[in-house]
Amino acid sequence: MPRSPRSSSAKGPVTIAMVAARAGVSAPTVSNAINAPEKLRPETLERVLRAIEETGYRPSRAAQTLRTRSSKLIGYGVRPTPPGTTAPVMDRFLHALSEAADDAGYRILLFASPPGGASLKGYEDLLDQHDVDGFVLSDTDERGDPRQPWLDKQGVPFVAFGRMWSKRQIGDWVDVDGAAGTDAAVEHLISLGHRKIAFLGWERGSGVGDDRAEGWQRAMRRHELPTRARRAQSADDVDAARTAVKPLLDAGATAVVAASDTLALGCYYALRERGATPGRDVAVVGFDDSPTAGILSPGLTSVAQPLEAVGRECVRLLLARMADQDAEPERVLLEPSLVIRDSTPAPDA
Amino acid sequence: MPRSPRSSSAKGPVTIAMVAARAGVSAPTVSNAINAPEKLRPETLERVLRAIEETGYRPSRAAQTLRTRSSKLIGYGVRPTPPGTTAPVMDRFLHALSEAADDAGYRILLFASPPGGASLKGYEDLLDQHDVDGFVLSDTDERGDPRQPWLDKQGVPFVAFGRMWSKRQIGDWVDVDGAAGTDAAVEHLISLGHRKIAFLGWERGSGVGDDRAEGWQRAMRRHELPTRARRAQSADDVDAARTAVKPLLDAGATAVVAASDTLALGCYYALRERGATPGRDVAVVGFDDSPTAGILSPGLTSVAQPLEAVGRECVRLLLARMADQDAEPERVLLEPSLVIRDSTPAPDA
DNA sequence: CTCGTTCATTAAATCGATAAAACGAACCTA
DNA sequence: TAGGTTCGTTTTATCGATTTAATGAACGAG
User: Fold this and answer.
1) A149-205: pLDDT as tens digits
2) CB atoms A8 and B154 under 8 Å
3) CA distance B270 to B264
4) CB hemisphere CA count around B337 (13 angstroms)
């Protein structure tokens, strides 16, 4: 078989007309061979497919979009990472998103979303100019985020990474079950023999933070362990955490579950301050499995979000929504997994 | 003035024909009002612009692309972050890229690039199907990367984040001057009174690593300080670094410049092992200003890459290349900046 | 053997923009 | 006043695909 030459090797891309000429048919027949093969006589189909193969034909998305009003594009607004925040792992999510989209014949179109309050500008632009078929949203936990209601009203398909914490639920979303993560952390610690397990969380009021606290609490209750005086809160900041965790250590906690790796690191420092060693004297579990967790010493056991799966699910839900606008909203909670490192060692054999 | 209604509020987007009808002119006149306003009589221009404003008209990119063969799209292949690696904060880069592109009327189109060897598949697809106008490449330091030669041969505009270390230079690139970064680190340490300044780097052979070593070396020479027995190498791994730095500390180094934050953290541990305190007893400087650097205690002084500026420059060079295919290749080296934290404290007053 | 079906294929129309060519009015020159 | 410019606008054609309507061949029934 002849090696299929790159379309642009000759001059300009291969058009449907060239394929048609080569196969001895008309343009619509080539189109049908791709989009409705059952309409062709098997013999014709084979001839057309061969011509497509030989010419390396790829339909022009611009022409398809113009005709069908569907761009096979999914919009995603990139927020700048606020300096100081540990929110780096978005690369993994974006890659998973791209990959899942590619597999379905879609692509991700980026636009720069302003840092402060969620503006609708970029969303309007992508809709009008690029005819995007839908959007993936992230960072949806801000209060008064206008995006979901607006997109819903416009009838534009979208899916959010992050559930809605308000009562009124709008549209589909995918989220990670934070409570299940801290619950698993507690179970792990209990299996190691710990009973005095404390929780270091953020100030109440954030959906994500309260959810993570909830998982710790329910696991403790399940094992009939007291939670009173075993819980502290702090800003997501190492120094604040170092201070906030002290009472818990004073109260004799042998293990700390933290709502973030940053908070967990605060525990490390508080322990060292009093001459104790994280992992050996007090077990510590973080949340997010940030790059930092792996390079700390001792390595920080942490709850890892399945970002690849989140990306895939986002695309799956979005495609379903695009296929049927009126379907029941689907909401997916994914289980995080515990990455066990040296900060939660097995008891001496 | 009437509030401009969202195009899709009525039914379907606003087309150029609607604007033309409203302004009492023909379609091409509207087109000219946007693309060649000097061709219109001022009075007509004003009338057309008003109609555009009132209708909220945004030209359809699909139609424009079809006609002009320019999509105003820039392709970018997202690689998955290899697990274990200190994920560079690519989000910042991507945001900057998007923002700079948006400002110039372009957008970033993602595709999933396979993890292993750089495949050309995604690049071909974006060219043929989406008519992308150019590409931004990253992770170009791999040997035998086929992308640059291939794109160059195809005559497709591209710009790389990361210079080419081989002799044969192809195309435009933007990079961060790693040598200038470590040089500045040394200067900073010298100003604090240090003289025995060691360098902890990667194994020789990587362009990036050798460059960072080079900056340290030249600064030392400039101040007539010895570099012999002040240099060690290690894999980019905390434990390896901890071991590798020992001889340097044994030799009495009072400061260590590391080729990465991971290596710098290895120094922290080596110091603690011998009862010394990073920052107080021995100064440490890292490289990349990863999120980890900020949350360590003491905070790690680190060389920060100007990722926002890199993104902007990438777009600038790419636009220039698209405007003139035959222009001389432009290569931009950006200065990193030293983020000073507590690991390099000022001497006691 | 003619006429109505069925089925595969083609011809024609269309999406929304822009480039090129045609057009017509105003103005200038001879 | 005829003829030539200049200038602004419109007409026409086009990009590459898909949708709809039309076409023609093969076939069966009457």
Assistant:
1) 999 999 999 999 999 988 889 999 999 999 999 999 999 999 999 999 999 999 999
2) yes
3) 10
4) 7
Q: How confident is the model at residue A90 (pLDDT cuts 50, 70, 90)?
A: confident
In contact, B141 and B207? CB cutoff 8 Å: yes
Number of Cβ pairs < 8 A linking chain A and chain B = 168
Contact between B118 and B147 (Cβ < 8 Å): yes
Shortest CA distance to A123 belongs to which of A132, B347, B187, B329? A132
Nearest nucleotide (CA of B34 to C1'): C18
Q: Which residue is nearest to nucleotide C20 (CA to C1')?
A: B28
CATH code of A73-175+307-334, in short, is 3.40.50.2300
- Interior CA angle at A4 toward B71 and A39, to 5°? 80
Enumerate the nucleotides of strand D whose atoms come under 7 Å of any protein CB: 7-12, 14-20
Distance CA B317, CA B310 (A): 10
SS3 B111: strand
Question: Quick check: A10 contacting B, CB < 8 Å?
Answer: no
Architecture of domain A178-305: 3-Layer(aba) Sandwich (3.40)
Classify B30 as helix, strand or coil. Answer: helix
Q: Hey, how many other C-beta atoms are within 10 angstroms of the C-beta on A132? A: 24
> What is the rounded CA–CA span in Å between residue A197 and residue B6?
54
Give the count of alpha carbons within 13 A of B102, CB side only: 19
A347: phi then psi, degrees, rounded to nearest 5: -60, 150
Task: Say whether residue A70 is in contact with chain B using an 8 A CB cutoff.
Answer: no
The CATH architecture one would assign to domain B7-59 is Orthogonal Bundle (1.10)
Do the bridges between strand B107-112 and strand A107-112 make them parallel or antiparallel, or are there none, so unpaired?
antiparallel
* Per-residue pLDDT tens digits for A275-294: 999 999 999 999 999 989 99
Å separating the CA of residue B295 from the C1' of nucleotide C17? 53
Q: Which residues contact A2 (CB under 8 A, 6 or more apart)?
A: A54
- Asked if residue A327 has pLDDT above 80, the reply is yes
CATH 3.40.50.2300 maps onto chain B at 73-176+307-334, 178-305
Best CA proximity match to B127, nearest among B79, B71, B61: B71
Q: Is B119 on the interface with A (CB under 8 A)?
A: no
CA distance B76 to B87: 18
Q: How far apart are CA B206 and CA B199, in angstroms?
A: 16
